[in-house]
Every structure is written in C-alpha cells, then in structure tokens.
Design brief:
The chain is an alpha/beta fold. The protein contains eight helices and five strands; from the N terminus they run βαααβαβααβααβ. Helix 2 runs parallel beside helix 4 and helix 6 packs across helix 7.
Length: 181
C-alpha cells in the first residue's frame, strides 16, 4: 500500500505571504497550471502508481487542485476534514513573516490564538494514516490532496525530524510525495 501526497497549487495567499490555514485563498493562474501539470503527470504514471482513491481537504484550493486530478484519473475525491490546513487563528489572512507568528509556529506545543498547534495538526494527520492502514487493502494506493503544514506533519509520521530539520522542510505547491504504508 502506497500513500501519495500532493500540496495544492499556488494561491493568492501564497504569493502574498499570507497565513492561509483555514482562510480561503484562490488558485492563481500559475496554481491552476501547476494543478493541470500534476494531473497530467499522475495520469501518465497511473499504470505504475495504481492510485485507487483520492482524499482531499475541504478547503477550496485543495478541492480545485484535486478536480484536475479527478478528471485525469477518472476518480471522485472524498473530502476529509482531517486534511485541512492548520488553523492559524487570529493570524488567518495576515502577513505571516512576523516575529510573533514565527515564535508560535516554531513551538509545536503553542496554539495560535483561537487556532491550533502543530501537535494538533500532527494528531489529525496521524489519525487518517492509522485509519487507512487498518481499513485499507494492501494493493490500494491512495492520494491525499492537501496543504503545506499538514503535509509536513504527514512527513513526520514516516521519518523523524529535529525541530531545525522540520522548519527547513519546504513543501512546494503541487509537490508530489510518496510513502510506503
């Protein structure tokens, strides 16, 4: 059983360095092109990858990205709330490159005011993986279409990271990762 994970395409929020956790941000023209390119790549590699199910975050930018993949693979994505991006609370929609934002972000046990901590996001990420491992079939390969911080937390399920390594981990738009379950 394999798990493929893709981050959504570029958004207005990404382009403007805004904290877009649960805050909705539309795909840019580049983001739509990235999504189309990813979908084409997955279609070309489908004989090798054998993706049988797509799970997607309920947030629009992830659903819009997944829509291209659904068409390419002739599959219907299942929305799962556990794949939502971190809730940045009072920082949602705000410029994120501030000392206060980074101080909270770099401490996995700190919650963003009215939001979540990295630990809470990791818990959500781990729970969906554990569920799929328990209920999935060994020949079933799954694709998640989700978000940057959530994807980083998924990565920590499969590999140990120091705090320094974790914060250097960059998940780019429409990057595709592959893990053995």
């Amino acid at each position: 059983m394999k798990l493929f994970v893709a981050r959504h395409g570029e958004t207005d929020g990404n382009r403007n360095a805004l904290a877009c956790g649960v805050f909705e941000s539309d795909l840019t023209d580049l983001g739509r092109e990235q999504a189309k390119t990813l979908a084409e790549r997955l279609k070309q590699d489908q004989e090798k990858n054998q993706i049988t199910a797509i799970y997607v975050s309920p947030l629009k930018r992830a659903r819009d990205t997944a829509s291209y993949i659904e068409k390419a693979l002739n599959l219907t994505a299942r929305i799962d709330n556990r794949l939502k991006e971190i809730n940045f609370g009072t920082f949602e929609g705000q410029y994120w490159k501030t000392d206060e934002f980074i101080r909270i972000y770099k401490n996995p046990f700190f919650k963003f005011p009215q939001g979540e901590s990295l630990c809470e996001v990791a818990h959500r990420a781990y729970s969906i993986i554990e569920e799929l491992k328990q209920t999935g079939k060994s020949n079933e390969n799954i694709l998640f279409v989700c978000h940057g911080v959530l994807t980083a937390m998924l990565c920590t399920y499969f590999k140990s990271f120091s705090m320094e390594e974790l914060f250097k981990l960059e998940i780019t738009n429409c990057q595709l990762l592959e893990f053995d379950l």
